[in-house]
Design a protein that fits this description.
Blueprint (H helix, E strand, L loop, with lengths): L1 H16 L16 H11 L1 E5 L10 E2 L2 E2 L7 H4 L4 H4 L1 H5 L7 H10 L4 E7 L26 H12 L2 E7 L18 H4 L8 H19 L5 E5 L8 H14 L4 E2 L40 E4 L17 H13 L3 E6 L9 H17 L17 E6 L2 E6 L7 E4 L5 E6 L2 E6 L1 E4 L2 E5 L10 E7 L12 H9 L8 E5 L1 H9 L1 H6 L2 E5 L5 H11 L7 E4 L3 H4 L8 H17 L3 E5 L16 H17 L3 E3 L2 H4 L19 H20 L1
Parallel strand pairs: 1-4, 1-9, 4-5, 5-6, 6-7, 8-9, 18-19, 18-20, 20-21, 21-22
Antiparallel strand pairs: 2-3, 10-11, 11-17, 12-16, 13-14, 13-17, 15-16
Length: 662
């Protein structure tokens, strides 16, 4: 984002320093690196494509016939001669066009950039071109430069202005204008060429693009189309790319400037091709792609205005497409086809509004996010950003349990729309599971924000860092300090019995879900460095439950004994507590812990007796006839309640007293 802000600053400085609206010359512009140049685009994720031109007048229909595909192809699909088609510019008077309103609708939908068709395949231009009279100023009654008005509106509202430009030109005699009635014959038959095309390229195509790059300020993206014709060569494409970057060094150019694109898939074949990003069309790649790409898509079936096309994609589907694309590392360029008066179709407006509602609430999970580092889940998609994973839930689980990728290491999970309500994350039957509300807060996609454990803090070493600094400073004042080292049972003890910890020099160092491996790493900063008289070690529950994967009872015991030996080395007295009884673990119902608990307690007791260490037996006082935790002592089948801690308190005090006498 810092790079993006720097780019915006550069763009603003560029605008302020210009004495006219012309783009600065190469010598005046600071050339950015490729990563800096691409940064704003990579962060933006969501843009608006606008297909608009004189083809909006017939709307895909001629004498009762509806053209197949997009309405913008009507000149070719329904066999208009150039002379017949030239009647449409004279009819093109979009008096309801309002650039500020168009940009506002894009912005309100959550879009960050706009790509407008400066010239489509029919050859009609939406700006005041000095190269040709076949444009909106000279051939239509509208007499307004749409590109200028839209570029200015974008700058006012902080939207990046970009333009689409067709390499193909069905109107120009040196391009495809001589191929009637099949202007597009060159797509399927690569032997169909116009020998005059190089002249069109040099004297018409390049000069028009130069006008757009020099008369309308900084351009975010130059988006080409029509690369499929044999007339246009890869040598032209590479030269064209360099030509554009010479005029505006920091603009971005799609891969259709060259000849590498593999059909609608949109990505380049192997080889040396120009272009900054791939362009999948009307499809989303099955998996992520390790390069920049942008999926362009219509809301119905047509790019240009086509009132007969009623096959509108739902707002839900379009929003989920956005999420799907971002989860795979791409951008989403969503199309609008305005009508001949300059109005967005009401169906498009409705969908833009709905997407805007979702992006305003959940944009944090989209803008600046990177592709998911995990496999695609059945219930939705992941995105990632700045130490967070965002789980976008399309299909709400009926049982309220969302199974997430086991390799995720969550520190905290919340609803993105409700950051103050924490969601419980537990291991259930070996599955990392987030407990969700009964009903989905958003019927399109509810986002769960998962804060990750830092990669360098797997053991939560920073959890008590500040508190430990204070305790170390007061270590000379409190010679009788005792540290309770454990997991959630220790952690909750401080909550349920605050007076017990206030009246006694006891320090609680417990974290929910903590295993003995993690406790062993924490033992020095959380115990030894505090210089206590004694340590009470509560461990084993989370290991038995499989919270961090399979581990044997012997390995658990070895970790506990290692902590005890570390304490003894530093002249700290040790109390080894038994594992509390439990009939089952609610988060891992398949685990049968009774025998494992008995076996681990036996190992701990034997070790304590052999090494003259106090063994603290909670188990005997809290176990029921079925070898589970007595109901009156538990808030569930594992964790003590207030009464349970009342049972434990005199037992631990007596054990500490014994340990200090040894």
């Amino acid at each position: 984002m810092k790079t993006f802000n720097r780019l915006i600053l550069i763009l603003l400085v560029t605008t302020l320093n210009c004495s006219s609206c012309l783009a600065q010359t190469n010598s005046e512009v600071k050339k950015l690196s490729d990563d800096e140049r691409m940064a704003w685009w990579r962060d933006s994720k969501f843009g608006m494509f606008i297909h608009w031109g004189v083809y909006s007048i017939p709307g895909g229909e001629r004498d009762g016939k509806i053209c197949g595909g997009g309405a913008e192809w009507i000149m070719d699909k329904l066999d208009y001669t150039i002379e017949e088609y030239e009647k449409f510019p004279a009819m093109f008077n979009p008096v309801k066009f309002n650039a500020d309103e168009w940009v506002s609708m894009a912005k309100d939908a959550g879009m960050k950039y706009i790509v407008i068709t400066s010239k489509h395949h029919d050859g009609f231009s939406l700006w005041d071109s000095k190269v040709s009279d076949y444009d909106i100023m000279d051939s239509s009654p509208f007499k307004r430069d749409v590109i200028k008005e839209l570029s200015e509106a974008c700058k006012k509202q902080g939207i990046i202005f970009c333009f689409y430009h067709s390499i193909v030109d069905w109107h120009h005699p040196q391009a495809q204008g001589n191929l009637f009635p099949n202007y597009n014959a060159g797509q399927k038959d690569q032997t169909v060429v116009n020998p005059e095309f190089p002249k069109y390229y040099e004297n018409y195509l390049k000069p028009q693009v130069k006008e757009l790059l020099t008369n309308y300020g900084d351009i975010g993206v130059v988006w080409f189309d029509g690369d499929w014709i044999a007339d246009y060569t890869t040598e032209m494409g590479k030269e064209f790319y360099d030509f554009i970057r010479e005029i505006q060094p920091n603009t971005i150019i799609n891969n259709r400037v060259d000849k590498g694109r593999k059909g609608m898939e949109g990505m380049d074949a192997e080889g040396n091709f120009a272009g900054d990003f791939g362009t999948p069309e009307q499809e989303i790649p099955a998996t992520g792609i390790d390069s920049d790409w942008e999926s362009c898509m219509t809301m119905n079936g047509s790019w240009g205005y086509k009132p007969s096309d009623k096959k509108w994609k739902s707002s839900k589907r379009l929003t989920q497409n956005l999420i799907d694309i971002v989860s795979k590392g791409g951008n989403f360029l969503l199309n609008i086809g305005p009508d001949g008066l300059g109005q967005f179709p009401p169906e498009s407006v409705e969908r833009l509004k709905a997407m805007g509602v979702w992006t305003r609430e959940n944009g944090e999970s989209i803008y600046g996010a990177s592709a998911s580092p995990y496999d695609k889940p059945e219930w939705g998609r992941y995105t990632a950003k700045d130490g967070f994973i965002y789980a976008h839930v399309f299909d709400w689980p009926e049982d309220g349990k969302l199974v997430i990728n086991r390799t995720i290491k969550p520190r905290q999970a919340t609803l993105l729309s409700d950051p103050y309500t924490k969601l419980k994350t537990k291991l259930i039957d070996g599955n990392l599971t987030i407990h969700l509300p009964e009903k989905a807060p958003n019927n399109i996609a509810t986002v769960i924000k998962i804060k990750l454990m830092p990669n360098d803090d797997w053991a939560n070493l920073k959890r008590y860092k500040k508190a430990n600094i204070k305790l170390k400073a007061s270590s000379t004042k409190n010679k009788n300090r005792v540290v309770f080292m454990g997991n959630s049972i220790t952690e909750k003890w401080v909550k349920y019995s605050p007076e017990f910890f206030k009246k006694n020099p006891f320090v609680g160092r417990g974290i929910s879900g903590q295993t003995t491996s993690q406790m062993l790493l924490r033992f020095k900063p959380d115990v030894i460095d505090l210089n206590p008289k004694a340590v009470v070690i509560h461990a084993g529950t989370n290991d038995i439950a499989g919270n961090r994967g399979p581990i044997t009872i012997e390995q658990i015991a070895a970790n506990i004994f290692s902590m005890a030996e570390l304490a003894k080395t530093h002249n700290i007295k040790v109390v080894l507590a038994s594992v509390l009884p439990a009939s089952n673990y609610s988060w891992s119902p398949s685990v049968e812990p009774i025998e494992k608990i008995e076996a681990l307690n036996s190992l701990i007791k034997t070790y304590a007796e052999k090494n003259n260490i106090v063994y603290l037996d909670y188990y005997s006082s809290m176990v029921d006839a079925h070898k589970g935790l007595k109901k009156e002592y538990g808030r569930d089948t594992v964790h003590p309640n207030a009464k349970g801690y009342e049972v434990m308190e005199p037992l631990v005090k007596e054990a500490i007293k014994k340990a200090l006498k040894k």
